[in-house]
Amino acid sequence: MKSIKILMAMVLLLSALLSQAAIKNPVTENVKISGSCALCEARIESAAFEKNISEASWNKETSIASVTYNSKKTSLDAILKKIALAGFDNQRYLAPDKAYAELEACCRYERAGKSEPAEVKPAAHEHHAMDAAAAKPAEADPLKPVLEAYYGIKDALVASDGNAASAKAASLVKAIKEVKMNELGQEQHNVWMKVMKDLDFDADHISETKDVGHQRDHFSSLSENMYKVIKAAKPSEAVYYQHCPMAKEGKGANWLSQVPAIKNPYYGAQMLNCGKTTETLK
Questions:
Q1: What is the maximum span of the chain, computed from C-alpha positions, in angstroms?
Q2: Is the peptide bond before 260 cis (omega within 30 degrees of 0)?
Q3: Cα–Cα distance, 217 to 71 (Å, whole number)
Q4: Closest alpha carbon to 83 in 41, 111, 125
Q5: What are residue 267's phi and psi, to 5 degrees?
Q6: Higher pLDDT residue, 95 or 234?
Q7: Contact present, 220 and 247 (Cβ < 8 Å)
């Protein structure tokens, strides 16, 4: 019997090591997540799972989950928000009432608190941090550093400067990772979660090359996702969404600008003023 237990322990240890090996830059943290049964375990672990980026192992006896994630691709805060949206209160966020109500009867754990209205709310002991955020001036914008870094890439491409575009893209990669998602509004947070990986992907590719043509290819999709996330909330300053019909071999491409004047990042000096403003976000 003793040898069987030792063998099982070795298998579990090996499984854990292999799992972490698939996740680069791994960080593991233990967090409390409410739940009551094996089905809760499956739901919680499913909500936390993202291939090669994050995973969790939840113990229904202790209600403690061991969460492992790639610290350069996501954060514990983002994972716990997804778990809350799946219906499970945790040490940082309370689940929306609607998500909790949709759980099977066996999963209806006893709640320590309720959230009103149906949106992810901070858990009680996180209120002080959220209160501090709420006390910030109305013009404070958690995505302002991201937008400013994006503008840096745009201006570099207007100048057809691949070196500068690469450096500004590296700044954007850093700004994306430093976004405090708990400061985003609900709609903007939902959009951010959908486009964050794509933003990081395009910014990373722009930073890795000095080839302006390749940078402009990624700038096109980067701009589309930036538009989505900026449009989801009122920006602190006007943002001009501009379009060039000639870009991408006549398919057309868009970009965001901090000024209404057209400065084309897809052609630079060749066709500097080609394009028009199609929408003003403010």
A1: 79
A2: no
A3: 28
A4: 41
A5: -125, -20
A6: 95
A7: yes
Among 54, 100, 101, 61, smallest CA distance to 78 is for 54
Alpha carbon distance 235, 184 (integer Å): 12
pLDDT over 90 at 139, yes or no: no
> Could you tell me if 37 and 60 are in contact, meaning their C-beta atoms sit under 8 angstroms apart?
yes
Report residue 8 as tokens.
């099982």
Q: What letter does residue 164 receive in the DSSP assignment?
A: H
State how far the Cα of 74 lies from the Cα of 221, in Å rounded to an integer.
Answer: 21
pLDDT of residue 13: 41
pTM equals 0.55
User: How many CA atoms within 13 Å lie on the side-chain side of 269?
Assistant: 3
> Could you give the CA distance from residue 190 to residue 188 in angstroms, rounded to a whole number?
5
* Closest by CA position to 47, among listed 2, 100, 5, 84: 84
CB neighbour class for 169 (10 Å; exposed up to 12, middle 13-18, buried from 19)? buried
